[in-house]
Amino acid sequence: MRAAAADAERQSLTTPTDAVPDLTEIRLAVDTVLAEFLAAKRRSARPPLQELIDTLDGFISIGGKRIRPVMCVCGWRAAGGEGTPEQVVRAAASLELFHTFALIHDDVMDDSGTRRGHPTVHRSLTHRHRSQGRPGNADRFGVNAAVLLGDLTLAWSDELLHTSGLTFGQLRAALPVVDAMRNEVMYGQYLDLLGTGRPAGDVAHALEVNRFKTAKYTVERPLHLGSALAGCDSSVTDACTAYALPVGEAFQLRDDLLGAFGDPAATGKPAADDFREGKYTVLMALAVAQATPSQLRLLHALVGRSDLTGEEADAVRAVLEATGARLAVEGMIARRCRRALAALDRAPFPEAATVPLRQLAHAASARTS
Amino acid sequence: MRAAAADAERQSLTTPTDAVPDLTEIRLAVDTVLAEFLAAKRRSARPPLQELIDTLDGFISIGGKRIRPVMCVCGWRAAGGEGTPEQVVRAAASLELFHTFALIHDDVMDDSGTRRGHPTVHRSLTHRHRSQGRPGNADRFGVNAAVLLGDLTLAWSDELLHTSGLTFGQLRAALPVVDAMRNEVMYGQYLDLLGTGRPAGDVAHALEVNRFKTAKYTVERPLHLGSALAGCDSSVTDACTAYALPVGEAFQLRDDLLGAFGDPAATGKPAADDFREGKYTVLMALAVAQATPSQLRLLHALVGRSDLTGEEADAVRAVLEATGARLAVEGMIARRCRRALAALDRAPFPEAATVPLRQLAHAASARTS
Predict the structure, then answer these.
(1) Residue B338: Cβ within 10 Å count
(2) Which of A155, A182, A193 lies closest to B145 in CB terms?
(3) CA of B13 to nearest chain A CA: how many angstroms apart?
(4) Which residues of B touch A (CB under 8 A)?
(5) Residue range A256-289, pLDDT digits in tens
(6) How far apart, in whole angstroms, are the C-alpha atoms of residue A274 and residue B240?
(7) Is residue A268 classed exposed, middle or buried when 0-12, 13-18 and 19+ CB atoms within 10 A define those classes?
(8) What kind of fold does domain A171-369 have according to CATH?
(9) What does residue A66 show for φ and ψ, rounded to 5 degrees?
(10) For B19-64, what is each residue's pLDDT tens digit?
(11) For B20, phi and psi rounded to 5 degrees?
(12) Rounded CA gap, B307 and B301, in Å?
C-alpha cells in the first residue's frame, strides 16, 4: 500500500514544475525509495542476513520526520532545480539511511531502550536472540549485531547515493558535501561523548555540540547537498547556511526542551532519559551556570543517575524552571526562528524553496514531537 | 623519516614500467598515503578530535601486513596497468582504512584486549580517559569512543577513495566493487556473530564464514578493485577470483591454526583468545565433527569460557590434535595453495602480477604471524 501510494506521488513529483512541493509528497517519495532499496537488498541477501534487514526496515518504517531528505529536496529547489527528479529523491533518501545508522549507534552508546515509541534496534535484536533460545549472551549479541547493522546501514547510505543515477558532475559536487557532513556530525558526537555524565555550565560548549551534531548535520549539509546537485553558485550555498544554522539550532533547542518537559507519548522517548544519561544540553548548561549553590548540589546529585525516579526528575525540572533556563531557551528558539526567516527574505531562492523552508522553520521551532 | 623514505619509493613506483613491483615498496607507498591523509585530517581538526586521530594513527602505524592494498596494486598490474600510479596507491590505501575500521569494531565486539601486540583501540581510549581523571565510566567511554572512531574511519576510507584522483570511468568501475566488498564482509561478520559462543561441527558453515569474512574481502575484492581501475574485462576478473578464493581461504585457515597453536609473541594476540571467544573456525568445526563423546564434552565445557586457564587451553589443543583436525587443516591449506598456483599458471596476467601473486600465495599459506 505504502509503495503504491508513493508511486503515484512520485509520478506527480517528477513532472518538471516550479510549483511549491508538498512536504508530505516528498516524504512519501523518500519512503518508497527506502522501501524498494531494502526490498532489493532482502531479495539478494542470504537467509541469516534477512532478519537483520527486516529489523532495519521495521525501524525505518515506524517513524521519523525525514527532515534531512526534505531539506535536501528544498536545497535542490533553492538552487533552481526543477521538479523533484528521481535521482534527487534517491540522493535525499541516502541521507535518511545515514541518519538511521547514526541513530542505531547512538542508541547503543547511550544504551537507550526506546526510540520512536518502540524498542531500540539493539534491544529488538537482544529480544529476538533470547526468544529464539539461541546460545550465548543475548544482551551482548544485541549490541554487537546493532553495531554491525549500523555499519551496514552506513555502507548502504553510500551505495544508495552511488546508484542514484547522478551525472559525474553531480557526483563530484555531492561527495565533498557528504564527506563534510560526516566529519561534522562525528565531531559533534565525540564532543557530546566527552561532555556526557556530569552537568557543567559551559554554554558555549553545549552550543558547539548543538551546532555540529544537529544544525550543520540536519539542516545545512542536506540543503547544500540538494543545491550542489542543481549546480549552485556560492551565493546559494551561503544563503542556505544563513537559514540553516539558526533553524537547526532552534530544532535542537526544542528537542532539549521536549527531552526535559515533553510528553513521552508524543516524543516516543521515556521522560527524563536526557537527565539519566546526563546529556550535555544548552538547557542544562544554562541552568548550571545560573544555579544557586543548593540548586547546583541538586543537579550534581541527580543528573547522570541511571536510577533517577520520577520525583527526582521533577526536582531537576523545577531547577530548570527556577534558574530561568527554560525561559531562556524559549527565547533563543524564538530569536533563531526570526533570524532564519529574515535570512529567507534575503535569499536568492525561488518561491518553490522559500515557501516550504518558511514552513519548516516554524515547524522546527514549535514542534511537540 | 617514514614519510621521506616512502616519498622516494613512490617516485620510483610511479615510473611507468612493467618491472615486477617490490611488495615492500608498495607497502611503504601505502603507508605514506595513510600518514599524509591523517596528518591533513589532524591539521584541520578541532583539538578534541586530534587525540582521537592520534589514537587511529598510532594503531595503523604499529603494524599490519597491508595485504589488501598490496592485492589491489597486484590487481592493477594483473589487468595490464602500468607502473604504480599515485591514484591507484590512494585507492589501495582506502582499503587499509576500511580494514582499520573493521578491526576497531571487531575488537569492540569481541572485547579483545590486545591486537598487534598492543592494547586494542577501545582499551587505549579507556586508559587515556582514566589516566586523565575525566568524569564518567572509563570503560564505557572507551567502547563508545571506539565505535565512533570506527565509524569515522569507515567514512574516511570513502573520502580517501573519492579524493584519489580517479577518472569518472575509474570511479564508476570502483564503487560497485567496494560496495560488494562491504556487503560481503559484513555478511561474513554477522555469520560469525551468529555462530560464536558454542563449538559446533558445521564445517560448511565455518567455511562460509571464512569465505565471506576473509577470502572475498581480503583477496578477491582488492584484486577486483585494482583490475577495475585498469579497465579489465571479465576474463581478468574471473582469473582473479580463481586465484583469490583458495589463497584467501588458506590465509584464514592459517590464521585459525596460529590462533590455536601460534606463538603470541609473533601473532601479537594472546594465546587461546579464539578458544575464549568461542570463535567458529573450520579447525574447531572439524574437531567437533570428529570428536569422541568425551572429547566433545571437553570442548563444550571449555570453548567459549572467558576464564579459560592455560592448562585448559592445552586440553583443547590436545583434542584439536587427537581428532586430526589440525592435520586436516594443514592439508586444506596445502591443497588451496596448489589450486591458487595452478590458477595463476592459467591466468592471462603479465609477469608483473604473477610473480608477486605467487609470492603472496606462499606467504599466506606458510606465515607465522
Answers:
(1) 14
(2) A193
(3) 28
(4) 45-46, 48-49, 52, 101, 105, 108-109, 134-137, 141, 144-145, 147-148, 150-152, 154-155, 158-159, 162, 168, 171, 175-176, 179, 182-183, 186-187, 189-191, 193-194, 196-198, 278, 304
(5) 999 999 888 877 777 788 898 888 899 999 999 9
(6) 52
(7) middle
(8) Farnesyl Diphosphate Synthase (1.10.600)
(9) 55, 35
(10) 666 889 999 999 999 999 999 999 999 888 999 999 999 999 998 8
(11) -65, 125
(12) 12
The CATH architecture annotation of domain B167-369 reads Orthogonal Bundle (1.10)
Taking contacts as CB-CB distances below 8 angstroms, the residues of chain A near B190 are 48-49, 52, 145, 148
Pair A221, A245: CB distance under 8 Å: no
Q: Which residues pair with B193 in a beta bridge?
A: none
Beta strand A114-115 with B114-115 is unpaired
Give CA torsion, residues A139, A144, A150, A155, to 10 deg.
Answer: -160
The second-level CATH assignment, the architecture, of B1-165 is Orthogonal Bundle (1.10)
Q: What is the DSSP letter of B115?
A: E
Task: For residues B247 and B241, give the distance between their C-alpha atoms in angstroms, rounded to a whole number.
Answer: 10
Give the amino acid at A243: Y
- In sequence order, which ranges of chain B are alpha helices (DSSP H)? 2-13, 23-44, 47-61, 67-78, 86-110, 121-131, 138-162, 168-195, 203-210, 221-229, 234-261, 264-267, 273-277, 282-290, 293-302, 310-322, 325-346, 351-366
Count Cβ–Cβ pairs < 8 Å, chain A vs chain B.
110
- The DSSP call for residue B81 is -
How many of the other CB atoms lie within 10 Å of CB of B3? 12
CB B121 within 8 A of CB B107: yes
Main-chain phi, psi angles of B115, to 5 degrees: -150, 135
Task: Give B159→chain A minimum CA distance, Å.
Answer: 6
Give the domain ranges of chain A: 1-165, 171-369
Residue range A20-31: average pLDDT?
88
Residue type, B160: L
- Alpha-carbon distance of A361 to A336, in angstroms, equals 9
Asked if the domains at A1-165 and A171-369 fall in one CATH topology, the answer is yes
Q: Which three cell numbers stand for residue B13?
A: 613506483
Please name the helix (run of DSSP H) or strand (run of DSSP E) that holds residue B118, with its range, or none.
strand B118-119
Whole-angstrom distance, CA of residue B281 vs CA of residue B192 = 9
Measured CA distances, B349 to A188, A270, B356 (Å): 48, 61, 11
Q: What percent of chain B has pLDDT over 90?
A: 75
Residue whose grid cell is 591533513 = B40
